[in-house]
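Please, structure for the following, as tokens.
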Amino acid sequence: MKKTLMLALLAALAVGASAQAAGPAGGAPQTPAPAVKGARISKAEMAKMEAEILDSLDLTDDQKTKIKVHKDEMQVKVKELRKGAKGNKGLSDEDKEKLKGLRKEDAEFMKQTLTKDQLRQFQKLRRKKLKALRDKSTAPEPTKP
């Protein structure tokens, strides 16, 4: 139950983190880009990372509930922004600014919900795990002999 709750929370976070990249018209799957510096991290990887981080923070039941509700609300807002994306053009500049505001709102929420120690640990682990994911996604493909 705890892991399911955390995964749901993190899935919502992952949506926010990857909302700038709008999918192609018609909902067709995008072809993954080659691994390059600054490559995007998948929603699944982000969700897993966030779940691991939140599991390690020893959150109270109240914090877990607040975070879940907040992340669910954020997910709805981000989906609404993405609906407005026009085909392959992606998000408008206005929608990108709205998304930036949602990210700030999310950061402020976490700052208010977590204790100082939890927030410090959350930020430290997030930076470390994001770096590891980015390094992994930018690593060159092994060559076959």
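Residues 15-37 have pLDDT under 50 and may be disordered. Residues 60-113 form one domain.
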